[in-house]
Amino acid sequence: LIARASGPLGTNAQYLFSLDQELRKLGMYDACLDDLVGKVRHLLGESSQPGLA
């Protein structure tokens, strides 16, 4: 659902990726979020490494 959902402000996947990126900038890491980001990137056929998508 996250990989395909979108709304007036963009895709749910982009929101997820942005959240992950901003948390990392603040020095915060969440293993569950990281796992979810990897799974969504895989479903979208993107690189699982930040900044390479």
UniProtKB/TrEMBL annotation:
Entry superkingdom: Bacteria
Cross-referenced Pfam families: ChaC
Name the UniProt record assigns to this protein: Gamma-glutamylcyclotransferase
A GO term, aspect molecular function: glutathione specific gamma-glutamylcyclotransferase activity
Keywords linked to the UniProt accession: Lyase, Transferase
Biological process terms in GO annotation: glutathione catabolic process
Record bears the keyword Transferase: yes
Record keyword Mitochondrion present: no
Cross-referenced InterPro entries: ChaC
